[in-house]
Amino acid sequence: MYFVNVIGPLKAIFSCISGFQTNIQLVVSTQSEVCCSKMLEHVLSKLKTELEPLGFELSPFLVGWYNELVSVKLHLDAPSSDCLAICLISSPMMFEASFLPLLFSWFEKEDGQSLEDVLRNLKSKETRKTSLPGLNDPLDWSVFIRVNAALKRLREDNNLLLTETESLALGTARFVPDYVVRPVSRLPLIHVQCAGHVSGLAYYHKACIKVKDLSKEYGCSLHPKYGGWFGFRGVIVFPDIRCPELPRPITRSPLLPGLPPFDTEALQTLITEYRERWRDNRWRDIGVDEQTVCRYSETARSFFNTPPSSRAQWVERLIQMSRCRTCPVLSRSSSPATQDHLTLKHQV
């Protein structure tokens, strides 16, 4: 009787099978990550079409660029350093172009309800989403709704134009709002100033200020066109879209000469005004032409200067005035100049 040694061949066979399975997994993993400049152009074009008319501006960056500037505790979670992300800011026109029309539409549907009731109803419709805003800031809700609506249309519109793999890559995109904090450390989920800097949208200035005999570093961002008249709204992360050849922008500041080194005294003035007297808004004009810069309307300034705990009263007063026949009415098509006369700063 002859015995055939099958152990060795079986080991080889199983080794081949194991290697074959590993190769399959590698191929699937590689195919699930889209690396294509066409995708970047497509995504930016669609999102800008949806969001720019509403007063938002967008600029792409790589997750690795951002992670290089922040501590490990603030890193963005992504499978690769060359994953695509997009920084989102609001320009001065966002308040009238996006926020007020959406705000009025909520109260048209929910006549007679308080702001808290309106936002609670909105929250009940978004149970599947994460990073929901709180019930005390309608502006965060307006941004959240606009961005998620734009992402939804991006996915739907591209289903017929892209491959299945590319469409799946869009499906994993997530919006990280500026207000979200980490569960244990309570640190922000995204350091928006650093994201704005690496994306080229706004220069992040830092300077040491002495407070009670202690020197501490503070930061403030300036947009090359708007100065300080803008707001960070978060980032959109695309974990399955990789853009290793994305050119890194040179971020410029309205402070002369536009690039470092900057005048030490000018930086000290900027940071001090921002830290100690931010409601005066003087820091926003530093470095820009005060005669031509686009600023927030008086109504927008009133809202932003109102503490979050009092904004519900501010909003409800605004809605009440808009319904009054003898009061100035804010329409969806009203320009900031038309709305400047409605100042509620001392009425809340």
TrEMBL record:
Keywords: Cytoplasm, FAD, Flavoprotein, FMN, NADP, Oxidoreductase. Its main location: cytoplasm. The keyword 4Fe-4S does not apply. One of its GO terms (cellular component) is cytoplasm. Transmembrane segments: none annotated. Belongs to the MMACHC family. InterPro entries: MMACHC. This is Cyanocobalamin reductase (cyanide-eliminating). One of its GO terms (biological process) is cobalamin metabolic process. It comes from Fasciola hepatica (Liver fluke). It is found in: Cytoplasm. GO terms for molecular function: cyanocobalamin reductase (cyanide-eliminating) (NADP+) activity; demethylase activity; FAD binding. The keyword Transcription regulation does not apply. Its cofactor is FMN; FAD.
